[in-house]
Write a structure and sequence with these properties.
CATH architecture: Clam
Number of domains: 1
Order of helices and strands: HHEEEEEEHHEEEEEE
CATH topology: outer membrane lipoprotein receptor (LolB), chain A
Structural class: mainly beta
Strand content: over 45%
Number of helices: 4
Strand order of the largest sheet: 7-8-9-10-11-1-2-3-4-5-6-12
Shape: globular
Radius of gyration: 17 Å
């Protein structure tokens, strides 16, 4: 489930925009166009994992920083950092860091650098409800379906977009194992200064850290 959190947490970072469009294509086209103008993204969020099969109902807080293809994801137990080529996964509890090539851990899913344009090539989508409600907020409900579902660990991503602000207030990921991961954006700050040092793991900050290098 940690990998699912890493892969989908970036779906919660959808922008605000001025538009009266009410079809999924019009809205997502505008999301993609504006996102391409961002240099960086910084956001705090909360997430909830519900897995009835495993009897899990877990909540956590997180922070994400994105700069092009680079990202720094800080969760309650893990920190996951990528410079666009390498991924460092730090386990806070065990004080250990696993290093992988990004290409080896994507597993057919998407990463933060693709989040705001992924639906252009990998998803079908539809406006499911123009009068939905997300935690009491009048919203558009858009469903995303992967074109090749057998290659994905999920079958549906549900986006709730605030009708007044036209920004995502809630994202729900439905996994192939009948688990559900929900994300709620607490704040969103595009074009925040993020030095490149934020996107490489610095072992000196974690005395005694165990390094597990899986790269060939």
């Amino acid at each position: 489930m940690k990998k699912l959190s890493i892969l989908f947490v970036f779906a919660a970072l959808v922008l605000s925009m001025n538009s009266s469009a009410q079809t999924s294509k019009e809205i997502l086209d505008k999301v993609s166009a504006k996102a391409k103008n961002w240099k960086t993204i910084v956001s705090d969020f909360s997430s909830t994992l519900k897995d009835p099969k495993a009897n899990v109902n877990q909540k956590q807080e997180g922070n994400i920083k994105i700069k092009g293809q680079k990202y720094n994801l800080n969760l309650s137990q893990y920190i996951v950092i990528s410079d666009g080529t390498t991924v460092w996964s730090y386990d806070k509890k065990n004080n250990s860091c696993t290093i992988d090539n990004l290409v080896d851990v994507k597993d057919g899913a998407f990463d933060p650098s693709e989040m705001f344009t992924i639906w252009e090539k990998d998803f079908k989508h539809e406006m499911k409800n123009v009068n939905a409600s997300a935690d009491g907020v009048p919203s558009y409900e858009i469903h995303l379906y992967p074109i090749n579902p057998k290659n994905k660990p999920y079958h549906t991503i549900i986006m709730y977009i605030d009708k007044a602000k036209l920004e995502a207030t809630k994202i729900v990921v439905k996994t192939r194992e009948n688990a559900e991961i929900s994300y709620k954006v607490k704040n969103f700050k595009p074009n925040t200064d993020c030095p490149d040092t934020e996107f490489k793991f610095n072992a000196a900050k974690y005395p005694g850290v165990e390094i597990i290098d899986n790269r060939i």
